Amino acid sequence: xxxxxxxxxxxxxxxxxxxxxxxxxxxxxxxxxxxxxxxxxxxxxxxxxxxxxxxxxxxxxxxxxxxxxxxxxxxxxxxxxxxx
Amino acid sequence: xxxxxxxxxxxxxxxxxxxxxxxxxxxxxxxxxxxxxxxxxxxxxxxxxxxxxxxxxxxxxxxxxxxxxxxxxxxxxxxxxxxxxxxxxxxxxxxxxxxxxxxxxxxxxxxxxxxxxxxxxxxxxxxxxxxxxxxxxxxxxxxxxxxxxxxxxxxxxxxxxxxxxxxxxxxxxxxxx
Lengths: 84, 177
Description:
The structure holds two protein chains of two kinds.
Chain A: E1 2-4, H1 6-33, H2 38-62, E2 70-72, H3 73-81
Chain B: E1 15-19, H1 23-46, H2 48-55, H3 60-87, E2 90-94, E3 97-104, E4 108-115, E5 119-125, H4 129-134, E6 136-143, E7 149-156, H5 158-176
Antiparallel strand pairs in B: 1-2, 2-3, 3-4, 5-6, 6-7
Helix pairs in contact in B: 1-3
């Protein structure tokens, strides 16, 4: 049985969609109800900055993978087992 | 403005003070998230060679990289949601009333208020080693209605706050007569 590798990437993008929905709701709450002050601004900025850093590092690591490949399940596990 | 659109100040009303939970309550949550973030780094530093081989695996390599990205994004999102929950919980004490704005997760908020003249009893409580050292605890405000009880959770200097609320309550009662 073989599955294309990009299936995992699609699952990752679905996770990212949920992440951005929750992030937007959180940022909206902070901006609307937290008031215009230094703490709100700092957390707003920090959240976006750290998110961008994590996504950038993820992109760096994921962009070098050939996602068009298909993986033979049993063969892959056989090969992987040699790495343990 | 304090409390955002949930707090509408009346014409002759003045905000005396506003309170948030003590910083230590959020520090505990933050420390737990830092601990979670450090786990993969510590494991990687211990089993560096094994992980390097795993990352080269045709299937496991990409899956682990995606998993690590999801793990750190999740930790960061939960940290942020916890901060919003902590930061948007606020008690506003005015010359007329106490307004309690409580954020429950991201999708729920409770706003309640009580009139200062209706306060019957105010109790402060500090329990535990850390609350004693850092001077934080709870203040319970009881009104004439038996079921109605306001709780200021984990606020700084509970006895001082209790005293200030009693003073404001007595003043409000005198003004109402």
